[in-house]
Amino acid sequence: MADLEADFAIGDKSPAGIETGLLRITERSDMSIASLALRKGTPVPQPFGLSLPGPGEWVSEDTNCVLWVGPGQWFVLARRYADEELASELKASFPSCSVTEQTDGWVVIDIECPAGDEVFAEMLARLANIDPDKLIQGRCVRTLLHHLGCHLVRLGPRSLRILGARSSAGSLWHAIETVAVNLDCRFPVR
Amino acid sequence: MTRLDGGLIDRSKTLDFSFDGKPFRGHPGDTLASALLASDVRLVGRSFKYHRPRGVYSAGSEEPNALVELGAGARKQPNSRATTVELFAGLEAASQNRWPSLRFDAMAVNDLLAPFLTAGFYYKTFMWPAAFWEKLYEPAIRRAAGLGRLSMLPDPDRYEKGYLHCDLLVVGGGPSGLSAALAAARTGAKVILADEDFRLGGRLLAETACLRDVGTLDWISNLENEFESLPNLRVMRRTTVFGVFDHGIYGAVERVSDHMPAREGPVRQALWQISAKQAILAAGATERPIAFADNDRPGIMLGGAVRAYANRWAACPGKRIAVFTNNDDGHRTALDLIAKGVDIAAVVDVRPEAAALGDYRLVAGGVVSGTRGRMGLSAIEVVSGSRKERIECDVLAVSGGWNPNVHLASNHRGRPAWDEAVQAFLPPLDGPAGLTAAGAASGRFSTSDALLSGARTALGALDSLGIRAAMPDLPDAEGRRSVPAPFFHVPGKRRAWVDFQNDVTVKDIKLAHSENMRSVEHLKRYTTLGMATDQGRTANVTGLAIMAELGGQSIPETGTTIFRPPYTPVNLSVLGGGDTGEHFRPRRLTPTHRWAREQGAVFIEAGQWMRAQYFPQPGESHWRETVDREARAVRRSVGICDVTTLGKIDVQGSDAGEYLNRIYANMIQTLKPGRVRYGLMLREDGFAFDDGTCARLSDDHFIVTTTTANAGTVYRHMEFARQCLWPELDVQLISTTDAWAQITIAGPNSRELLTRLVDGFDLSNEAFPFMACSELSVCGGLRARLFRISFSGELAYELAVPARYGRALMARLMEAGQDLGVTPYGTEALGVLRIEKGHAAGAEFNGQTSPAMLGMDKLVSVKKDSIGALMSRRAGLADERRRLVGLQPVDPAASVIPGAHLFGAGREQTLATDEGWITSACYSPHVGSMIGLGFLENGDARLGEAVVAANPLEGQTVSLKVVPIHFVDPEGGRLRG
User: Looking at residue B329, what is its pLDDT?
Assistant: First the structure.
């Protein structure tokens, strides 16, 4: 095990997290990410037993999920069970696929909105130019969020996962935090 | 205080506010204008050019006169229309464009100079000397004529932006908008209803007896209750849809807390981008005035506005009111006011056949030929046939017909069309796709027509989306259709205002016409008619009608006018969406950013990236001192630098080698696993595109690095080639720029330093020579990648670790190399080292340089095809003779300035004799003088020659010696050592 201390993409000593009156926003430092791309004429893999989802879709099994990110390309997200092992494990399981370690390329931010569907829609309206009725559960989209290219994953009726580039994680967090604060002002908890 | 009975104000509460420092009171429901009128304040501003006294003219966003400054300090908001400002307790308003006071404005002297200040006067007057224009004339004119003043302080308020999606957007909450929203929302379709007012109802709120079998307010209230219960309907009050953009996108500003005392809501305004499949323009209509002599005195108002103040706000603007009209609407004003107990002096109707509709004096076939009253109207002169009389009154309500608010419909350059039947411009037929007008905005002026057309238009719009809607039950409503007589101005010699905000009179239009400014667009620019904050909402059509009359043509023959966004002024702050300062745009930070900040690094923006530029040490007083030290440290011992920002593209697949062979100009397929090669990419046109290294990790796995600046464009180019040019190749790409922290370790002691970190990896020259690469582990098991490549010309490595360990690795390198004097260096020293080594970078890869110019023509392989290879050999490019050379000043103390142009010694310095330019320059601690790189005509054959670098911008001429591009270690022994 390396004797170097790892940084969080956003948080200082621990993963970043804020809880406002309406939202719970968490930096997920426990996710491993690897990209998986199909090579020509090779069998279609089923990571974690999951069938690869079509464009704009994602599938999950337990805490692992696979999301479509481009033609013939997927991101596999898994709870990090051991440092750096997801990509090599995938490569070992599916040697005819192109696998690239992506854990450090991205920051994963989960947003939960217990306050209800309306607030969730209001939040999404302020984050990205995405129709909340289109980004339904089971769907994901690559889009701009405050000028930053991100993957938005509709985890559940009131939960959203955002994958953003690690280098601009601070700007992404600021954008999300600002939306959270503005929402609190616009929809005061009664 | 002149309050009438009734009205939609809450008299149980009072709101204290001030205007020009004086205290006043109003009620919830008031606007600033209604509260001022109810407090008998008639003079509220001064006109733009002549500083004429002005009063409230309208009751809506079309207001040209009552522009005030709201708030104080950084929150001061100039040019706010008092007619749309919702009153709140503590509101501070002040008049503008006057000195020293509103009542005694010294600049009113302009009015006496009016004969000299005609249309286009400054074009004619301030001709000479030309140099005076910017320095003297323009500032003086701007001071004398103007609107409000900005605070010049940063805006302290909070703004937000967002995106909404709907099936149907209804713009306007009057009768047609309400019926449209009702019909549509009942289907379950996603509907947005936006209205600029704080209360739904539009003209319904300002009129009496619009609905017959139900009270107007009851109907609206029931509707609002139903709206509340429909989750698919979003009602946006205080929201102005200000423009229609491409693909069904509408821009809207929601005034979230402008109406709240002391900014109770932390968000002041929100910018909404609304994507609507269909939209209905139910923006109503704006009443148009009739121009007559001295028609701009406070107390002269639009008739519909007088009615609105009386009915909605229970505010009577005067004690004795006269009406001047060309249609039945003026009579309606008189009737409503009589019902409120207001004294009507007379109704002057230009139509000889007009009949009184109630108990008031009618002057049929009469016109108002003049007015009296210095700070406010006291009397009007009326001419009827041969009879001229003076009628005492303090308010004149003017009704010249209604102009549909077609603005949004012509945002895409559709031209409104004149309709003779309703005597108005209607929305163009070629307006924005999906936008249909209804109600008064479509020329259907009666309440009954508006209600019906709103619902029918909604049905049609939804039908086009495949949604079936039913016609809702609509209340029985008045169906009066009043077509105005085609009467736009009263002829006369005195000034008659057409555009109140810009002080444009009928005379000005006549002058422009006589000076051949006959196109509507020329008229606008010559006279300023239709400019400034109101964009001619009350002036354009009248101006056009007068032009038509002057030219002896019909209105449609004369022309039409179109409208650009915004419909009403929009704050720049809200357009910015709330992002200011360091958050104005996203920033990318390197994994060692925090560490560098702790070391006191000075940062520089490189695209979105923030990079450490240099690391000042105590005692260093100048950046050059720091950079020299950093560069020397690399050459003498070892330096470390974060190069994470270089683009990194992971290329895999069984055809990856062939693919890269086609992408790069030089041969890549022959590269052996574990080796790195310098690669040159060309554009399709044969010019140099980007350079970097290509590392082969295994047979089917490569890592391509790009320059920082081109990381995105190279990736896009490669994806395009993969997906569109050669889809048959088995290649997969993905960016890994952010995934790896990459640190350069450069200098003669770099191997020694690195040895202390790697986990048993053999770094000897034999095992890991120049241009080798390998996966390995460092610091006790951390997976890493090592590349033996050099930008500085020294023995150097680039070590990549997962990004989250970048900061710790940097700290570890500093700790481990303490005894070696390891020195962090930034982009400045990086630049010095590469110029000393003669490596081309962004300044040389500027999109206009060929491989031959860069001395890289031999790299472009003729044994294979690659993007741009053929075009790089085309005649035009192959004839190019400028070559990259090194440049050194003959006098070592002289400066070498990038951008300076090169000329042969003793030759004339003209464009024709230009022989090239300096691309990069720096002070070289190694050479002991400034050095440069540049492109010089036949440069490769002119080594040793003296040339002249001319910097005409700074009047400098420097003699330079042409030298080889390598100032350091030309044989490359160091980097191979």
Answer: 95
